[in-house]
Design brief:
The protein is 41% helix and 16% strand.
Amino acid sequence: MSAEATNPEARPEARPELRRRGRTRLDLRRLGRAALLGPTSRDRLPDAIGHVAEAHRAHHPDADLSILRRAYVLAESSHRGQMRKSGEPYITHPLAVTLILAELGAETTTLTASLLHDTVEDTEVTLDQVRAEFGDEVCFIVDGVTKVEKIDYGAAAEPETFRKMLVATGNDVRVMSIKLADRLHNMRTLGVMRPEKQARIAKVTRDVLIPLAERLGVQALKTELEDLVFAILHPEEYEHTRALIAAHSGERDPLPAIADSVKAVLRDAGIAAEVQVRPRHFVSVHRIARKRGELRGSDFGRILVLVGENADCYAVLGELHTCFTPVVSEFKDFIAAPKFNLYQSLHTAVATPEGYVAEVIVRTRQMHRVAEAGVVALGNPYAHAATEAAAPAEAGSAAEAADCDEERVDPTRPGWLSRLLDWQQSAPDPDTFWSVLRAELAQDREITVFRADGGAPGTISLPAGASCIDAAYAQYGEAAHGCIGARVNGRLTSLASRLSDGDTVQLLLAQDASSGPAADWLEHARTPAARIAISSWLQAHPDSVKPTTAPARAPLSVVGARGGGGNAVADLPDATVRLAGCCTPVPPDAVAGFVVRGGAVTVHRIHCAAVAQMRALGRTSVAVHWRATADCRVTLLAESFGRPHLLADLTEAIARQGVEVVSATVEPPVEQRVRHTYTLQLPDATGLPALMRAMRDVPGVYDVRRA
């Protein structure tokens, strides 16, 4: 994890336009001199770490800093004599990484591991020494961020290092927090590298680290990483954006005046709120410029409103939409429906009388902390709640955390991380893992679907655009090879159907355990777990690929006497009445009749698609009513798994209900599914629900519905 420095004139951190407001910049030369002097006396912190302690105490005023002093002493002594390419002592790098995390509010254990994160990789310090001195928790985090040996893995060292870090992150998200801060400082000091190496590191940062920062909700790191990558990979567009921002800085900014108006509105409404103007970062300005073309003064920033409680957020929204003209298309409620990366806020846009449109973000102060720092703001997710309440100063103690015997439950392990950890075990080689990882992280939205079978867990998290195939592999793993269909929100659908957020999914598995997926499943699978499992099965069974179309065989039909209009009567003298085969109406369905060729009246259910088509053609409907007689004719479709004697069992179930079979058609099996079509004469229309239940109770039948 060696960090490379550069001269102050060339490195990106020297560019004032890339600095985040309020973010302290390290004086590397001052820290270097302090580091060379070595540790101070035991009773006080070394001067070189004083700025870290100050930032840490701002978030954790009761924190015990003695462990930080011991970690710094070990890091400084082990890195002594090592220099960065800029000529600064190497200890300035772990100090800078630790300061980034301290400013975000990381707890003491994270900062301790951050100070030591390069010791095992770049010095003679061993993991056993770290464990003996600082406990199992710090040791685990340090091991998680330590690279694998390139001599052992060769070209696969980078993907295997990321695989190792991601697996460790699944057990402790603080591993990735340190990695992100480490990459940010390295990106700030990247200018000394050769241009081709700068581009390679920037591309990995863009494809892997920035999406991970987004998913973990660490916006403060993500936005700065985006700007640094933007400057390296797109220098011309970066310079154009810089020129736009520079030109705007010389003009009158309308946002402060709009913010004052918002303050006055909220003050008059009695809502205690803090109103700020937040300048957009470079990439955000670039995106807005591409979206809107010519930029106006209000496009270079947004207004942030901070309040105390969730209810205050909606009160602010009501006042804004009352006193200003809202832009309805810009409203988003991420409080009622948080993003999958913990983000919560209300987003809206309002137009002022002067014609400016200002984007406004409303959130509580706690939401703001989580929005900026993400998982870092949650502190230690494994600290025992009672221990934290009784002794907050010890919350970061690695020794106490190591002694906790309770099962760890990480509230920050979301669905995307669980999916990633599952499929990485099946990735056959580093190249596949690396390419699939980038594709997985490119998915920027997530949906949640519900299991209809009531199993645990009750929900399945999937990337946006996922299909029933993805849900099958997420729920059943390799057993999903035998999936033959799905019911979404109670209706049968194909496995290729895309799912929407909130759908309820019931997956239908074949009874034949040897069945496998069709080749075209790969076209509809979005998740890596599904794609890897399908590809592996197809490669292992090249001669067993299921056909994608049904075999060309005629259906088996059993036909009885054909009927006419049953007990439907049209209000047209001497007209022949026929019940439509497309919707098979039965009493007491609402129906409509249409005169067809030959003068006959065809009767449809009122919601049949044919009714809409007839009316669109200008055809006039004929009133139809039902006779008092109770008998009726209906067509039912039965979906089932293929098995011997199924037709006989279904026919017997129908006969037991006292129903006459007018005709029956059995289609050829497709992927072990069989469709039966029955036209039935019922002695009483009220017996239809009981008949359909009896047919569903036949083993192997999973759906019965009206045609």
